[in-house]
Amino acid sequence: MMMTRFTRWVGFVNRNKIVESSKNETSFRRKTYQVKMVARVVDLRSDTVTKPNEAMRSAMAVADVDDDVLGFDPTAQKLEMEVASIMHKDAALFVPSGTMANLISVMVHCEVRGSEVILGDNSHIHVYENGGISTIGGIHAKTLPNNVDGTMDIEKIVKAIRGTDGELYYPTTRLICLENTHANCGGRCLSVEYIDKVGAVAKEYGIKLHIDGARIFNASVALGVPVHRLVQEADSVSVCLSKGLGAPVGSVIVGSKDFITKAKRLRKTLGGGMRQVGVLCAAAYVALRDNVPKLSDDHRRAKMLAEGLQKVEHFSVDLSSVESNMVFFNIKQTSKISPDRLCEVLQERGVLAMPASSTSVRLVLHYQISDSDIQFSLTSIKGAVEQILTDGTKNGAIVQNMLSVAQTVAV
């Protein structure tokens, strides 16, 4: 199952140290340990690990700023206007994170507490955002199965919609949420035809459509469809700038002017209003300006990586599922390799990766990964597999010898 991607292991490099921490938001228990010095580190944990480049740092240093809570930060306004224009929406709002962007969007559409939102059972909003729509928004989640391509069956969506005629007993459906690309389904892209159909259903039943577009630009590039066309039927979209695009911080919500007015009030309520936020928006603007054309290279390298992994005897990869910048590979049941152990050995060899489940590993490409990094990673992965299997054989022999000695002594 891909849905456990963040629950076991996360690390980050700090010179010659790796900090290992649980992703459990309630504990943040951290453990530091020494690892072998490596001359090279290739970080494939996520596209959120990129470092601000020189152009971003320069833009941050000279950013024209003011108080954005009061509505006067010119650099924030510039970024918001640009994203709104690209998406062909009326207005936009910069927020600190994708989680806040989705929470605000869902809450604006579901102003009546106890409202219901239809979303995928493997969606980021449902799985990884701490249940915020229910704990903070008082909104009921009606989950439907995500298909392997990230979609939900249209027929099931229609059947799940509940109107006000049953409000004495049931929550009223006010929103449908889609995710594009769909992370837990391997970065699969939702087609414009599918989104249009869901949008038509939403309009027919008088409900809203929100798209979690954390990697919507990846979807646009992979499908060859302008990003504004992908979100044409959406009433709101959350656009993450710190994933595929490589900005250090931030997401932007787009929608109607009335929607954004309400969103701005909720941003303040949730503690997301920031003062001279233009310092962050300046870097995000550079990412938006410079890095969209680089996404096709990320996708090409993801396929290159997947094809290399497919050649490893102990792995299986669904090459057809590699549509954007993510690669999930399964470790065959006949192998004695665990994802945790593989990632542990890989970090000693200079490659950082994340277990996706008890049988699979997730790798994510970004603009700071080169063709050479892909070859280095494949070589390191093959070496890690050999090391684990060799160590396992040696340990098995040692145990067998100990048992033999014990039996001899007993006799």
Q: What proportion strand?
A: 15-25%
Main beta-sheet annotation: 7 strands, mixed
Global morphology: globular
Q: Given the helix and strand composition, which structural class is it?
A: alpha/beta
N to C succession of SSEs: EEEEHHEHEHHEHEHEHHEEHHHEEHEEEH
Q: Give Rg in angstroms.
A: 23 Å
The number of helical elements comes to 14
The overall average pLDDT, rounded, is 90
Q: Identify low-pLDDT runs.
A: 1-35
Q: State the distance separating the first and last CA atoms.
A: 49 Å
Helix content: 40-55%
Number of strands: 16
How would you describe the overall organization of this protein?
- The protein has 14 helices and 16 strands.
- It has 411 residues and is α/β, with parallel strands linked by helices.
- The strands form 4 sheets. The protein has a 7-stranded mixed β-sheet, sandwiched between helices.
- α7 links the parallel β8 and β9.
- The protein starts with 9 loop residues before the first strand and ends with a helix.
